[in-house]
Amino acid sequence: MSSFGFTVHARDGAARTGAITTPRGEIRTPAFMPVGTAGTVKAMYPEQVKALGADIVLGNTYHLMLRPGAERVARLGGLHRMMRWDGPILTDSGGFQVMSLAGLRKLSETGVVFQSHIDGSRHEMTPERSIEIQTLLGADIQMQLDECVRLPAPREEVEKAMRLSLRWAERCRTAFGSQPGRALFGIVQGGTDEALRVESAKDLVSLDLGGYAVGGLAVGEPQADMLRMIETVEPHLPTAKPRYLMGVGTPDDIAQAVRRGIDMFDCVMPTRAGRHGMAYTRHGRVNLKNARFAEDIRPLDEASSCAASRDYSRAYLHHLVRSGEILGMMLLTWSNLAYYQDLMAGLRAAIRDGRLEDHLAEIREGWARGEA
Ligand SMILES: CCCSCc1cc(N)cc2c(=O)[nH]c(N)nc12
Q: What's the pLDDT tens digit per position in 259-280?
């Protein structure tokens, strides 16, 4: 069983490119991690996700504990075997989804009691149960249970949640124990308060975890606030451990966060937008619902290595989206994930070659110029 590790291969300013090594393969960083909430990257075959260049996918403790159940997934051989994904999997701890999806929630020092949004059944999520579930699923990277506060919020509420998350991080570390080849990541909280962010980062780093996520962002705050919090936290995170910005983001969010030293990203945007007719391309966003595409024979991107982006006309995609055809969701999800992986590959190469600033100017010019 090889170990879990992280190596930085090159730097360009605060940006880094490198690789996370796991027994199930390496993760090239900066990395975008497609979200596979309920054990599937929606509308995609796992082989397609792998072929696009994704090294790792995400699963959700909250969804999988409710259906099909963590113990059942373990009896079925674990999440990797069930969904036929042989690369690394990161699972979120469930607290964020409980607070955003579940009914009748009661939060205490122990954990959170909640009602399933599926059938109303009662459940309790504690730091210990979250780690137990993530271990039953077989996750290679496990996230601490945390409390993420929606912004804007009163400082005392943010402070209380940040301190609770720190205590839960310690309990998660104890529950995680020793799992060779796997890592437990802490989650920095603190809203948009710089002092709280620094305290959270410093106390988490003292726990010597496998990596550090910046949470509590992409929850309604302006991009400038998000970037300011990254700049506040980054100097207090060890350079030799991966940094993961949770729930982020648009291509521009990702590019700006890579520039500030973030290594890992996840976001439902490319998959969710694809299901709703929106394409992300190097020319910016293209809304295929728009009637102006009804007879546009051009593909989304003739230079793309992805067949969905290169071989299908906008007119056909417009027709599929307007008709609510499943193939429309499939092709646009495929195309969007291909674009996101191409974006990450371009960022990695630019950092390696020491030309990140020029590359960022080029891609932002492409987005601004819009379609050819
Ligand atoms: C599969 C989804 C992973 S990211 C979900 C997420 C997204 C955002 N934006 C913030 C947080 C956070 O603060 N904590 C946790 N556990 N998760 C968060």
A: 999 999 999 999 999 999 999 9
CA 269 from chain centre, in angstroms, equals 10
Enter the DSSP assignment of 145.
Answer: P
Distance from C-alpha of 280 to C-alpha of 176, rounded to nearest angstrom: 38
Q: Which helix (H) or strand (E) holds 214?
A: strand 211-214
Distance of CA 148 to the CA centre of its chain: 15
Please say if 252 is a catalytic residue: no
218 CB under 6 A from ligand 1?
yes
Residue 27 CA to residue 296 CA, distance in Å, equals: 38
Cα–Cα distance measured from residue 123 to residue 268, given in angstroms and rounded to the nearest whole number: 25
pLDDT tier for residue 1 given thresholds of 50, 70 and 90: low
Contact 18, 250 (CB under 8 A): no
Label residue 370 by pLDDT band (50, 70, 90): confident
Residue of the nearest CA to atom 9 in ligand 1?
A: 247
The total of other beta-carbon atoms located within 10 Å of residue 305's CB is 14
Asked whether the beta carbons of 370 and 284 are under 8 A apart, the reply is: yes
Is any atom of ligand 1 closer than 6 Å to the C-beta of 95?
yes
Hunting for tokens 């092709």 — which residue is that?
A: 331
To 10 degrees, what angle do helices 326-352 and 314-323 make? 130
The overall average pLDDT reported for the chain is: 97
Sequence letter at residue 359:
H
Q: Are strands 122-125 and 243-245 parallel, antiparallel or unpaired?
A: unpaired
CB-based contacts of 121: which residues, under 8 Å, 6+ apart? Answer: 66, 115
Atom index in ligand 1 nearest the CA of residue 144 equals 16
Cβ–ligand 1 contact at 41 (below 6 Å): no
How do 183-188 and 103-107 pair as beta strands?
A: unpaired
pLDDT at 72: 98
0.80 exceeded by pTM: yes
CA of 145 to the centre of ligand 1 (A): 10
- Nearest C-alpha neighbor of 102 from the set 121, 88, 85: 121
Rounded to whole angstroms, how far apart are CA atoms 256 and 337?
Answer: 19
